[in-house]
């Protein structure tokens, strides 16, 4: 299958890559660009481990084609920290022990950041339903909700 | 309280957390392999039981990117990938035994190319009758071992004669897919002597052993490295062997690196799951609620190969009593062979299957006698050791409540049905405290009142206590090794035989080593499990990771510390036992020196700063054939109270609130331990409520993706979730007086099933007899059953 050249922006940097027309964005990120933070948990858009944003919209990158990145702004977990300075969500996930094996963590962080950009003061229930597309098998989710809420409070300047 | 910040007992985050949150923690599939690496996929059987008549792989071989295709015919001896019995050929050798079995292996230039090619085979099968259910297996005599295993104590007829109430029933309990977020994956790189393997495995030594055997190499020529898994839960104890062996075989034959990962659907079709089973039971209690007799039959569906099923079924039998002393008891266990995936280790390893049967009996007896299940529990808990715990009670622990009549049995140490003295029972006090803390009795009364005014929604509440035995029941596995180096700059390198799957084992073991050297955990460099550094390891399983490897690493660190202390003692003319290691400093003869400085001196004095450490669990002895002995060093305890609501029109249900009090001994790291307890509870509740495995009549697993197989989502987590640790130190000499935590709290999820049973009991008079998983359909059917008797 003939490859197509794609010009896009990933985490603020201009990026060009070649991919086949049927190649998922997740495979492009992981195999062609070395951005392995997004994980393939199911390949069918059910687990959320491959979450990224495309033009600010939260998507499962296993269900988006690489060619759809043309001209788009892609944000992945690798762009969440500013240099060595972690995003408040990242810090609170560490401090609250909101992770165990870590495979769901990048997707959950990307999804949570997307939530807080839309809703700076979500209720617990809003957090739970927003993140319901991100499966975690290890933690039981309790600390994840706590971490999102404490990060949100800090981002609102309440801490 | 602990003094050393950052060492034992500190609530530190997972050591890899900074990498996890930035997406930089490499898992096996993230590793960069050379550009000529091959990617592998299995071609899978599409029928459950058949002879392979013809195998036409010409289209597979001709597919784009395909480099190598292997079948059983390409080996003089097809490599075995089973953990014990030698009954799992890497590729089907003439006969397929389940739908999903690997028939051939494709190596191609990309993962997708290999998978696409694997679907192009033309296989002609001569189908044989498939045995899919436990009933079919029983009828056909299809089983492992020659007959059922039976362990018994006392006299059932006397026991039943003394009973005032007798209940009898059957319960179906479903299996469970592990659903580790990172699927099975392995990679192999040819080396000048043999092969190096990177695998997502709980058992690097077994991978090493199987790969060596497959390639006809000594184990010394195979090195297995395992930095981290994306979850294991028992599913990576034996089920990763096939991928690692496949990679090693291809690497060996082509001289190119090889990598294999299962896509989620393949993973669920190929790999084994928790054993599902049917439990038949009959039990009786006297007027005081004391169980006088109990007989239980476990019909375990083991799948096509033996895998670890015998040990799993044994552990189910060993937990058939849960936390209760039952004088007259008989447990019969059938290990049935079926044409399905080979059921395997899964968190609890049969224990939860045994415990859920016991709790069902308690629930049934409570219903039949009109008592609160708590009253039946309290009448039967193993008594506390005479004189109580040698340890001081936790602050705030209330004395046994007035209903706790287990205290009357003080004066004797009770034994389990397998003859082990229960010296550490705290069930009575622990459950008493939990019930008081969560206001169980008042809430239960309020629920009854609420239900009386609610025709459609019904609430329910239940408590489940847990007593879980800690040690491998295969006694020789209870050993571990570690390797610790102190470098001349004072930095410390730690290797041990355990594997990190998210549980935070490396952090706990680092804290143990830091405590010995008076350093903080961040001073300890954690490294990958590596068979080249620590040999002959046991699987990181049976909750034993920190118990075994913590002790081994502690021993290694103590050896080095003793050498450092002796050196200083000689230098300063003081006794070695006056040298103190504290806060990054070494205190000797009134002087304080940086740990790094002392390390440099010791090195210059030509004294070794490296040591191995070894640990073998003491006291345990187990005669599996007789079912007698002390298989466990100790028990871990816990209890949960769960409140649920059901919709009697649809069967839909929710967990509203959960309260847990769990025994981790003196916690090595409360943050990690609470994480284990919470995750285990939710996983246990998922097993018994939403996670349904469905096989069709041809033996095809129909629920092989998260679209149809529902693990709990964040929206399923209890809205109120209170978790506390019971902090009395372990009575046994474990590392830091801690207790194992991986599996025991999984059983707390049983309280969700029992709470649903309680909610259902408000629909009528008949016993709900709820099977698991209690999906909405099953709850709805139970509503009808209870209403119409």
How does this structure look, described?
The complex is a heterodimer of chains A (159) and B (789). Chain A is α+β, with helices and mostly antiparallel strands and 159 residues long. Chain A has 2 domains: 4-79, Beta-grasp domain (Ubiquitin-like (UB roll), Roll), CATH 3.10.20.30; 88-155, DNA polymerase, domain 1 (Orthogonal Bundle), CATH 1.10.150.120. Chain A is built from 5 helices and 5 strands, in the order E-E-H-E-E-E-H-H-H-H. Chain A has helices spanning 25-32, 88-95, 105-118, 124-130, 142-155; strands at residues 4-10, 13-19, 51-54, 57-60, 73-75. Chain A has a 5-stranded mixed beta sheet, with helices on both faces. In chain A, strand 3 and strand 4 (57-60) form a beta hairpin. The longest helix of chain A has 14 residues, at 105-118. The radius of gyration of chain A is 16 Å and the shape is globular. The termini of chain A are far apart. The mean pLDDT of chain A is 97. With 789 residues, chain B is α+β, with helices and mostly antiparallel strands. Chain B has 19 helices and 29 strands. An 8-stranded mixed beta sheet of chain B has the order 3-5-1-12-9-10-11-20, sandwiched between helices. In chain B, a hairpin with a 5-residue loop joins strand 17 and strand 18. At the A-B interface, helix 2, helix 3, helix 4 and helix 5 of A face helix 1 and helix 17 of B. Chain A: It comes from Stagnihabitans tardus. Chain A: GO terms for molecular function: 2 iron, 2 sulfur cluster binding; metal ion binding; oxidoreductase activity. Chain A: Residues 4-80 form the 2Fe-2S ferredoxin-type domain. Chain A: InterPro entries: 2Fe-2S-bd, 2Fe-2S-bd_dom_sf, 2Fe-2S_ferredoxin-like_sf, 2Fe-2S_ferredoxin-type, 2Fe2S_fd_BS, Beta-grasp_dom_sf, Diverse_Oxidoreductases. Chain A: This is 2Fe-2S iron-sulfur cluster binding domain-containing protein.
């Amino acid at each position: 299958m003939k490859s197509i050249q794609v010009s896009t922006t990933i985490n603020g940097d201009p990026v060009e890559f070649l991919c086949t027309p049927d190649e998922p964005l997740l495979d492009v990120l992981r195999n062609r660009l070395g951005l392995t933070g997004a994980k393939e948990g199911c390949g069918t858009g059910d687990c959320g481990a491959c979450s990224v944003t495309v033009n600010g919209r939260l998507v499962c990158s296993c269900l988006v084609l690489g060619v759809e990145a043309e001209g788009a702004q892609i944000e992945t977990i690798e762009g969440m920290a500013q240099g060595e300075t972690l995003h408040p969500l990242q810090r609170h996930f560490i401090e609250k022990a909101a992770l165990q094996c870590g495979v769901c963590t990048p997707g959950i962080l990307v999804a949570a950041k997307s939530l807080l950009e839309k809703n700076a003061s979500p209720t617990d229930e809003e957090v739970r339903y927003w993140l319901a597309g991100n499966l975690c098998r290890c933690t039981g989710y309790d600390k994840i909700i706590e971490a999102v809420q404490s990060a949100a409070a800090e981002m609102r300047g309440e801490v | 309280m602990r003094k050393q910040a950052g060492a034992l007992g500190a609530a530190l985050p997972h050591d890899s957390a900074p990498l996890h949150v930035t997406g930089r923690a490499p898992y096996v599939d993230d590793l960069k392999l050379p550009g000529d690496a091959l990617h592998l996929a299995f071609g899978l059987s599409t029928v459950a039981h058949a002879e392979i008549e013809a195998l036409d792989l010409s289209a597979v071989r001709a597919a784009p990117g395909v480099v190598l295709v292997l079948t059983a015919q390409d080996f003089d001896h097809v490599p075995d990938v089973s953990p014990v019995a030698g009954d799992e050929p890497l590729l089907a050798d003439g006969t397929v035994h389940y739908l999903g079995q690997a028939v051939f292996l494709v190596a191609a230039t990309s993962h997708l190319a290999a998978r696409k090619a694997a679907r192009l085979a033309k296989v002609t099968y001569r189908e044989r009758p498939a045995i899919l259910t436990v009933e079919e297996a029983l009828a056909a005599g299809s089983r492992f071992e020659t007959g059922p295993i039976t362990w018994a104590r006392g006299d059932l007829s006397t026991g039943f004669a003394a009973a005032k109430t007798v209940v009898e029933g059957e319960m179906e309990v479903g299996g469970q897919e592990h659903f580790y977020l990172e699927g099975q994956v392995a990679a192999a790189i040819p080396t000048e002597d043999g092969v190096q393997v990177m695998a997502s495995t709980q058992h690097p030594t077994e991978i090493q052993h199987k790969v060596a055997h497959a390639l006809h190499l000594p184990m010394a020529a195979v090195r297995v490295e395992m930095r981290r898994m994306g979850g294991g839960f028992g599913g990576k104890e034996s089920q990763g062997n096939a991928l690692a062996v496949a990679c090693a075989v291809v690497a060996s034959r082509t001289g190119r690196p090889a990598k294999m990962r299962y896509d989620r659907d393949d993973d669920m079709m190929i790999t084994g799951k928790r054993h599902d089973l049917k439990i038949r039971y009959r039990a009786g209690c006297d007027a005081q609620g004391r169980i006088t007799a109990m007989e239980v039959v476990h019909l375990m569906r083991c799948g096509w190969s033996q895998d670890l099923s015998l040990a799993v079924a044994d552990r189910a039998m060993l937990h058939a009593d849960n936390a209760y002393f039952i004088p007259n008891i008989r447990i019969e266990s059938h290990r049935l062979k079926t044409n399905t995936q080979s059921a395997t280790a899964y968190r609890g390893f049969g224990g939860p299957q045994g415990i859920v049967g016991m709790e069902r009996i308690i629930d049934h007896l409570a219903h039949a006698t009109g008592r609160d299940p708590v009253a039946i529990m309290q009448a039967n808990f193993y008594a506390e050791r005479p004189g109580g715990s040698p340890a001081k009670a936790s602050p705030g622990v209330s004395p046994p409540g007035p209903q706790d009549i287990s205290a009357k049995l003080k004066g004797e140490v009770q034994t389990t049905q397998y003859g082990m003295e229960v010296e550490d029972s705290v069930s009575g006090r622990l459950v008493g405290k939990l019930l008081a803390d969560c206001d169980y009795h008042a809430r239960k009364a309020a629920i009854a009142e609420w239900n009386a005014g609610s025709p459609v929604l019904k609430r329910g509440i239940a408590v489940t206590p847990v007593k879980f035995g800690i040690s491998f029941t295969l006694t020789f596995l209870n050993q571990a090794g570690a390797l610790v180096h102190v470098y001349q700059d004072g930095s410390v390198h730690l290797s041990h035989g355990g594997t990190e799957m998210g549980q935070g084992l490396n952090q706990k073991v680092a804290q143990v080593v830091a405590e010995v050297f008076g350093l903080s955990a961040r001073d300890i460099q954690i490294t990958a499990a590596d068979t080249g550094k620590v040999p002959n390891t046991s699987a990181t399983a049976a909750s034993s990771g920190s118990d075994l490897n913590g002790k081994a690493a502690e021993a290694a660190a103590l050896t080095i510390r003793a050498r450092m202390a002796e050196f200083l003692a000689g230098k300063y003319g003081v006794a070695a036992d006056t040298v103190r290691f504290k806060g990054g400093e070494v205190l000797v003869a009134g002087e304080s020196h940086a740990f790094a400085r002392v390390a440099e001196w010791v090195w210059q004095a030509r004294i070794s700063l490296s040591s191995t450490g070894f640990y073998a669990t003491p006291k345990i002895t187990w005669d599996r054939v007789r079912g007698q002995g002390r298989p466990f060093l100790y028990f871990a305890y816990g209890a949960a109270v769960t409140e649920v609501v059901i919709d009697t029109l649809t069967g839909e249900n929710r967990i509203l609130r959960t309260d847990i009090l769990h025994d981790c001994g003196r916690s090595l790291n409360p943050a990690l331990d609470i994480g284990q307890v919470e995750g285990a509870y939710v996983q246990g509740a998922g097993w018994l409520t939403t996670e349904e495995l469905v096989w069709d009549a041809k033996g095809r697993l129909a629920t092989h993706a998260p679209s149809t197989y529902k693990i709990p989502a964040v929206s399923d987590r209890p809205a109120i979730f209170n978790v506390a640790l019971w902090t009395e130190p372990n009575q046994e000499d474990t590392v830091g007086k801690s207790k194992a935590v991986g599996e025991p709290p999984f059983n707390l999820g049983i309280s969700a099933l029992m709470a649903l049973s309680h909610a259902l009991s408000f629909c009528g008079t008949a016993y709900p007899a709820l099977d698991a998983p209690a999906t909405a359909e099953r709850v709805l059917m139970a509503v009808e059953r209870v209403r119409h008797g």
